[in-house]
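Below is the record:
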Amino acid sequence: MKSKKLSEVPFTNVKVQDKFWGGRMKTHRDVTIDACIRECEETGRISNFAKAAGIKEGKFEGIYFNDSDVYKVLEGIAYSLANCRDAKLEKKTDEIIDLIAAAQQSDGYLDTYFILAEPDKKWTDMEKHEDYCAGHLIEAGIAYYKATKKDKLLKVACNVANHMMSVLGPGKKHWVVGHEEPELALIKLYRETGNEKYLEFSKWLLEERGHGYGKGAIWDKKGWGPSYCQDDKPVKDLSHVSGHAVRAMYLYTAMADMAGETGDGEYAEALDRLWDSVVLRNMYITGGIGSTKSNEGFTEDYDLPNETAYCETCASVGMVYWNHRMNLLSGQSKYADIVEREMYNGALSGVSLSGDMFFYENPLATDGSHHRQKWYGCSCCPTQIARFIPSIGNYVYAVSESGIWINQYFSNTGDITLDGKKVKIEQKTRYPWDGDVHIKINVEKPCNFNLNLRKPGWCGKFFLSVNGISKKDADMNNGYIAIERTWSNGDFIDLHMDMPVQIVHADKRVRADAGLVCLMRGPIVYCFEETDNLKLYDKIFVSSESRFKAEYMPDLLDGICRITVLGDNGMEFLAVPYYSWDNREPGKMKVWVPENIR
């Protein structure tokens, strides 16, 4: 029995017309995709499939999970094609898919590392990412079929899933997924095919955790063990985030999907506990998670160092996936707030404005030595960004039986079907630089429904009008401004959200931020770069006496709102959005600065 309160409006129904996100999607199409394909070719990731198929001679190249990078790029390509068809890119993609299909073995097995390097050790080490790679293959196959209606990759994915179920499962072989991913992919495959065996297999994989079945390198590594991959407790008993941040996010995403599909209240209760653990005690102001490089994840509550913050880009995107599902499950705005925080800060910082340089780690302070790179030996983050940016429209709208929910604000048109009725919503806004949003409703004939507008957590005061008439008595529902009426074609709403510069204090238990503050304006977290402040960098402070000037600079960093901090001692400091740092001259950077308390 499904228990989701809301249903997603897919990005294919949302036409992005926004300067902010539209520009990034264009850069993704023009630059990021080509960069990722080129690197996958030059590093042997794609030729591994040709070798596994016997088309080319040679040994396996790279890290044992390199197949997954190719699959994530293909997924990103699929989303880009769904937004904007490109015959040349599609032809190139079909050629890569042909190699993947040729590499698949007759029993459905497909993992180029094991085919080429260790054919006698398949399904012996739960850390070796066979299942993880399979999950990304499944997601890519579904995405490409949806975008092009070509099913070759989807058939390959189904064969892989069927092979897994022939080896693993009740009465066969116990299996704990070392790096979670296939669990959520199998639920997607169930939704696409309607075959319940995929949902059942996903549930079985989730339930295998926490019973001592895990075997492999990470289980034996000192200081890591079962908690590193969330295998120390059954999933329904989890209450505190631990271990590797990306693995945790994929697990929680799958749990949320499973709760939505089955109505399992114990999953939902565990997720509520875990959300409090992550967001209230282990998340940076940017939305970044994972405070240490030692395990690419979590240590103890409130341990949030700035210069050594890990904050893997993949984990921030994982936070989007999880919180989006939590929003659909519950209809609560706090989850969409986190999606927004990640979109504009923790995830977006992972890619340069040029679209071809990437962060793996996203610290909140640096001595000037940390910079984006073209590629990594482990390049999960560039390929994660490759599939995230073109699907940004996924997070704008949702629907319930009686209403439409607007979760994110940027200029777009959304085509929505509500109880058989077609509704088109148009948003026009300069968000995130401006808090004014104009929303127009287009319907074929008058119809009654609830329209729910998210009131962002950062927003203090807001003003709302419908058809030019001020609406001061709007109801609030789980963080949404709720408007119920019979809508006519051409009705419009104007939402104004005050967007002052805000001084933010960390929780007093965060030792690294004692005596420090940071700045936010709207959803944007700001930082101070040495290149803007030169000789004053080490003297930067913000106090209650500081005054702020926010100014839109169209020619700076692809167009940003820059903040000038006017100190009471006559000094001026300049702050720019955190996502935009390290796109100019190299230098120091910090988010948190001293608070000069009088």
Notes: The chain has 16 helices and 22 strands. The mean pLDDT is 96. The first helix runs from residue 19 to 42.
